[in-house]
Amino acid sequence: MKHPAKYSDVLLPVFKEMLxxxxxxxxxxxxxxxxxxxxPDCTLLEIEPEWAAMSSGAIVxxxxxxxxADCSFDAxxxxxxxxxxxxxSFIDHQTEKQYKRNTYTHQLGRKLSANNSGAMQWGERYxxxxxxxxxxxxxxxxxxxxxxxxxxxxxxxxKEQYVTEWHIEALVNIGFSVLEHRKIKTRRNRMGQxxxxxxxxxxxxxxRKEV
Length: 211
Fold this sequence. Notes:
21% of the residues lie in helices and 24% in strands. The chain has 211 residues and is an alpha/beta fold. The chain has one domain (9-209): Vaccinia Virus protein VP39 (Rossmann fold, 3-Layer(aba) Sandwich). The strands form two sheets. It has a seven-stranded mixed β-sheet, with helices on both faces. A two-stranded antiparallel ribbon has the order 6-7. The longest helix has 17 residues, at 124-140. The chain is globular and about 40 Å long. It starts with 11 loop residues before the first helix and ends with a strand.
């Protein structure tokens, strides 16, 4: 079984550098647990049992209601869904003539679990979900804890959607400060209607919990 949105390899050393010295690290949107390539002892939370089962010790759970005590972690390192067409829910078991599908639902082979943001297109529902998730992240993060966010804008109907900027503002509004923002060129998904029109980089944003 594949996961459609694993961390790009080029991002892993950036995470390692930014979170150097942190002992307890959480990924609340863990997928198949690729973060353990740089943080072998990190805690993984993943809502889909099949993907959680691909990494030993990963916990099946919801990022908006996490099973951890307040102030449990030195750092959080995660990549939320981007709100792009990877949230499409159509399952196609046959090869398409024009496009290949690389969506959360298609790769899992079934309807996603309730409250999985992988089924949420960029919009009000997506934003409400992540406000709850980021509040939970703040709760379980220690004072002055670090938050390493991997996120990207995307293009819809020819226009760039400013998802990254929204996430940064949302975290700042609940008491985080931005320490660093790196834009890193990565190999982007070239599938779908906007296959030839892509934002060419992903952002890695380092923030600190101030309140």
